[in-house]
Specification:
Helix content is 26%, strand content 40%. By secondary structure, the chain is α+β, with helices and mostly antiparallel strands. It has a single domain, classed as Heme iron utilization protein-like fold. The protein is globular and about 40 Å long.
């Protein structure tokens, strides 16, 4: 891969779902993690003041937030981000799979947390804040490394 966006094209080319591709990935590129660690991503990024990128979408739209997460809170099974410029409401009971995914790119390795429901549909993705031509933040790499423990 030269760009993280090429992953989708690769899955279509070989006729596999995203979750199948993660299960079949060579060692070190995709690691399944406990679903509860998805909340840790947001809590840790908030606590450590690490800017992140959050991708939420469906077949008709994708919403992207880039920046810091400040105010997080629980309401029943919902884990929420309640910032002035960003709200996220994540029903943790709908999470079936969570993965750490490492993709090689021209800018170095890019690490994501990818979250799926029971049907294998994408719920949310998290990355450290970055842009093409800029390497991944070391603070983000460290946060993700802590999730693997």
């Amino acid at each position: 891969l030269k760009d993280t966006h090429n992953f989708f094209t690769m899955t279509r080319k070989y006729g596999v779902s995203r979750t199948q591709a993660l299960r079949l990935a060579p060692e070190g590129f995709a690691v399944k993690i406990d679903n509860s660690k998805v909340v840790n991503v947001l809590e840790d990024a908030s606590e450590k003041n690490i800017p992140i990128m959050v991708f939420v979408g469906n077949r008709g739209i994708i919403q992207i937030h880039t920046g810091n997460v400040k105010k997080t809170l629980w309401h029943q099974q919902w884990f929420n981000v309640m910032d002035p410029d960003f709200n996220l409401h994540l029903d943790v009971t709908k999470i079936d799979q969570a993965w750490i995914v490492k993709k090689p790119t021209e800018d170095g390795e890019v690490t994501a947390i990818e979250v799926f429901n029971k049907q294998g549909d994408f719920i949310v993705q998290f990355f450290g804040k970055r842009k093409p031509g800029i390497p991944e933040l070391q603070e983000w790499k460290d946060l993700v490394a802590d999730l693997e423990k």
